[in-house]
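Researcher: Following up on the earlier apo prediction. This time include the ligand. It's zinc ion, with the SMILES given after the sequence.
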Amino acid sequence: MTLKKAISGTNLEQAKSHNRRVVIEAIRTNGSLSRAAIARLTALSSQTISNIVEELEMAGVLRPQATLKGARGQPAVPYSINPDGGYSIGLQLDHQLAVGIVTDLSGTMRARVEKSVDQPTPAEAMPLLAAVAGELIASSGLDRTRLFGIGMAMPGPFGVEGMTSVGPTALPGWNDFPVAEELQRLTGIAVTVENDATAAAIGERLYGVARNLDSFVYLFIGTGLGAGLFLDGHLYKGSRHNAGEIGHIIVKPEGLPCDCGKRGCLERYVSLRAAYEKLDLPDPDHASPDLLQELLARGDSRLESWIAGAIDPLRQAIDVLELALDPETIVLGGFMPLPVIEELADRLEPLHLSVSSTRARVTPRVLVGAAGKDTSVLGAAALPIFSETNPQFDVLQKPHGR
Ligand SMILES: [Zn+2]
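Model: Understood. Below is the ligand-bound prediction.
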């Protein structure tokens, strides 16, 4: 079910649908708002807001709260999001883990399922993911007619000859595989696919440290490394959906060889895979991020040596991102355990001089993500709701006006 269908008997044109999203997002981010308060926050007319609020209330997306007594004039009815107005499934696939969650319209997680995988091919993963979706629907007892869709996060890059599906940081056999179409066929539910770094940026924007930011970069340290770009209120995806694949920018021209064919790529130094290699593990393909956390706690010298060697490349990547994109901040996160990320963040100073070095700034140049290890899957679950309720953050609020 889409929101459009929930509003029965109407076939709303694009502009109206967009305005609806603006209203929903204003209420969602503020908790509850009266019609007058929505008018103050958005560029919409009072009449438009009244019509939209009425539609959304009838559709079960908004619900009225107890009336506030105004100082004068008519009492104002605040509206809040009805959490049970809609549900969404988030799925995340990585080398060793498949995670599925259900969130309601308020973003609260209602169910979670985790399965071990081993660098799955599409033929292995697709039935498993469909089963996870089925399990989530059954265990959460949600009203299936109110399911917005499935959002799925997985490692990029997508469809790049010689770069996708090559080497230990890419999943094998996924190049050009129609993930969304196939999962949709198996589940009968609309599917949106996004790379894990972009999904993490959405998760952090909705639930984490980037909640009030209009421009930030999310550096996703996973098996490889990628960046989610949220710029001027929009996700930036690039012309072929591969923006932010900065794991393969060269940070050491004569450095370690990379499976992409180049030398000195960033993710050869800053990634789980790079850390595992430094540890001389017998089987780095099956190492677990938890191991890094244990070794950090023990003060293991091999891990210390990896961290020391990762700081400079990471600093350089931050320099490039700041100079190229002028973000408010750069958020560090991903599958790398939080204590290890905090250790990396603590040792980044002094950062290079860049356009971000200004003293007038309020947000630190680098922040550690706060939405936790489920950041990506929460972001993935938001994809169906996000596309339905909020494609553009920047039109939501009048610039600096209240
Ligand atoms: Zn490379």
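Model: The two ends are 35 Å apart (CA to CA).
Researcher: Noted. I'll compare it with the apo version next.
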